[in-house]
Amino acid sequence: MWIPSYTKLENDDIIYHVVRRFPLATVIVHDSRGVHVDHLPVTVAPSAPFPTAGSVLSAHVARENSLAEVLRDGADVTLVFHGPQNYVSPAWYPDVHDAMAVPTWNYIVVHVECSVELVDDRDELLRHLQDLVQHGEELVNGTMTMSEMSASYVETLLPYIVGLRCTVRSVTAKAKTSGNHGPQRRLAVAKELHHRGADPMMIDFVLPHPDVVVRRATLADVNGIARTHVVSWRETYAGIMPDSVINGIDVVGRRLQWQTTFISHANNVFVHVAVDNRQGIVGFVSGGRTRSQDLPDSHEIYAMYLRKSFQKRGVGGKLFASIMADLRTAGATSVMLWVLADNPTTGFYEAMGGIAIERRDITYRGATMPHVAYRFLP
Ligand SMILES: CC(C)(COP(=O)(O)OP(=O)(O)OC[C@H]1O[C@@H](n2cnc3c(N)ncnc32)[C@H](O)[C@@H]1OP(=O)(O)O)[C@@H](O)C(=O)NCCC(=O)NCCS
User: Fold this and answer.
1) Bridge partners, residue 132, by sequence
2) Are 125 and 161 in contact (CB under 8 A)?
3) Sign of the C-alpha dihedral, residues 222, 224, 227, 231?
4) Tell me: the pLDDT tens digits for 108-123?
5) 3.40.630.30, 1.10.10.10, 3.30.70.141, 3.40.30.10: CATH of 213-376
6) Would you say the CB of residue 236 lies under 6 angstroms from ligand 1?
7) Fewest beta carbons less than 10 Å away: which of 58, 214, 357, 371?
């Protein structure tokens, strides 16, 4: 799926919400016999850590569905969840006569890559059916439960279906929701969609939203920081660092690291986050007393990462200014940071007034790479 940066949907809560609200997935499997496409309602337990890799989605098919046979030996499957979608008429734009007014189609979709195992176990299948009924009833504000249905009829039908346990490998999501248009057009489109009874999720996405906010982080931000850390790390170092180092960090490990920062070093480390009101935490910066004792600087910026789709619109500058303000208040006389010499971000630090003061080879996770230290006067 082609995902221009302004359509990239990265907020796990929203992705979860799309899959819960629109559970009928298009199931795509391909094997040596060809491509198999079907449509199945899929459940995700309300408490499951979906969309994290390793989380589990459940579904079922009729035993006589050829898909059951295709999936019998274990198969890689793509599930496509279709969120709200709407045609957008250029007639709705206040500047309709502008040369750049053409129709478009807005939509929100989630693609889940997973490996699927068949479930013959009666109890697991029943649990999935109970979840599915509860989920469906929630969608229609109903209260019906499995226990109110004829148990003997359910028992009669059970042998005719087989469960699917889908273990998530990766999730990509896209919200093509007028994000490339200015606030006037977005407001006008949101009004027209509301008038036509469009899904509230679509209207919420289309409405113009305020800029990314930069604020001090708290312990409650740990999950968002850890996710952004991993995503931005991979985006930043692809092609610069060896793959073993790039893939060496994961969300769980980063969560532990950031929990330690907030719980054990709360008084010594400053952390600021950049928060988008739809995508959640999209960037962070941390700093405190210098760790490079052999350099004369009193303080250091330890890490600074911003998701690619939010770069080059001033957010990094805001993060930098806010950490420098905290370090200044903490008594910093000069602030340094280490950056990989091959990282184009060196240009950002120079734009922030940094002066290169030192070059060193630093070994990280077994890879030795040239680094540059920059100094800033607070
Ligand atoms: C570093 C980072 C936070 C900068 O964020 P950003 O939002 O893109 O930066 P901004 O848009 O606020 O840019 C501020 C200024 O820096 C300049 N700038 C930004 N990136 C630049 C680059 N790579 N080269 C040269 N100048 C750059 C901008 O042109 C802007 O200058 P201006 O104020 O004169 O217009 C972001 O690029 C990032 O997260 N990169 C990946 C992670 C990384 O490498 N972290 C460093 C590890 S030590």
Assistant:
1) none
2) yes
3) negative
4) 999 999 999 999 999 9
5) 3.40.630.30
6) yes
7) 357
**Structure-block tokens of residue 241:** 């660092």
Strands of 11-103, DSSP E = 24-31, 34-41, 56-62, 75-88
pLDDT tens digits, residue range 169-187?
999 999 999 988 988 999 9
- Which atom number of ligand 1 is nearest to the Cα of residue 235? 41
CATH superfamily of 5-206: Electron Transport, Fmn-binding Protein; Chain A (2.30.110.10)
Q: Which amino acid is at 7?
A: T
Give the phi and the psi of residue 205 in degrees, each rounded to 5.
-70, -40
Place of tokens 């935490």: 281
Residue 375 tokens read as 């100094």
Nearest atom in ligand 1 to the alpha carbon of residue 306 is: 39
Residue with tokens 């499995």: 146
Q: Is the pLDDT higher at 247 or at 197?
A: 197
Tokens of 229: 């850390």
Q: Is 223 in the pocket of ligand 1 (CB under 6 A)?
A: no
Confidence label for 47 from pLDDT (cuts 50, 70 and 90): low
**Cis peptide bond N-terminal to 51, omega within 30:** yes
- Ligand 1 centroid–CA 167 distance in Å is 37
Higher pLDDT, 31 or 18: 18
Give the three-class secondary structure for 212. coil
pTM of this structure: 0.66
Taking the domains of the chain in order of start, what are their residue ranges?
5-206, 213-376
Residue 96 C-beta-side C-alpha neighbours within 13 Å: 10
